Amino acid sequence: MERKYRDRLNKLANYIEKLPKKNFDFGVFSAEKHGCGTVGCAIGYMPLVFPKLAKFRVEASTCDDDFELTVNPKTLKMELKFKAGISDVANDINIQCKETGYENFRAAERIFNITDNQAEFLFSPSFYNSGSGTSAKVVAKRMKDFAAGKYSYEDIDNYIQSYSRILVDDFSKSPQYA
């Protein structure tokens, strides 16, 4: 992995591991929840960590000016405010690579120069023992381990390609991928 991509992955990992538990939800890219501000998964924080590379895109909106995103630097809490006339569409938020227009996992593939299988391995709850309940710290550790070369491209690609033939329980019992 080239240094710039390794640095990007570590920067995102460092950011999410500092988040309060209530601000990380591995089950959604970005969503308004219980009045506590916007929460999201690792991919969902890319526009905050890499504002020149990624942005939020609201599906129900025709223009980027329909919402405003602010971040409290002390609490790292995101707040997404929709302008008048825009309903609660927070669950329709996608993360978009500014250079290519690719969204969500494909945006992560482009920003970190990784394959689709590697993006799934790093950013999909399906490939973690605790699924969507996985903590930011666990996700950040895997990202850092990947950036450090602890998982080879080939091992991840081979494992994920064969995943459709393996039961989820078999995967979660594998200490190598916990």
Structure summary:
35% of the residues lie in helices and 16% in strands. The protein is α+β, with helices and mostly antiparallel strands.
Could you explain how this protein is built, in words?
By secondary structure, the chain is an alpha+beta fold. The protein contains seven helices and six strands. A hairpin with a 4-residue loop joins strand 4 (67-72) and strand 5 (77-82). Residues 32-38 and 84-91 have low confidence and may be disordered.
- pLDDT < 50 stretches: 32-38, 84-91
Output the radius of gyration.
16 Å
Structural class: alpha+beta
Strand content: 15-25%
Main-sheet strand order equals 1-2
Order of helices and strands: HEEHEEEEHHHHH
Mean pLDDT rating: 76
**Share of helix, binned:** 25-40%
Number of helices: 7
Number of DSSP E strands = 6
Distance between the termini: 22 Å
Q: Which oligomerization state do the chains in this entry correspond to?
A: single chain
Which labels suit this protein?
single chain; alpha+beta; two-stranded antiparallel sheet; 178 residues
Walk me through the topology:
Elements: H1 3-17, E1 30-32, E2 38-40, H2 46-49, E3 54-58, E4 67-72, E5 77-82, E6 93-97, H3 105-112, H4 116-123, H5 136-147, H6 153-162, H7 168-172
Antiparallel strand pairs: 1-2, 3-6, 4-5
Helix pairs in contact: 1-5, 3-4, 4-6
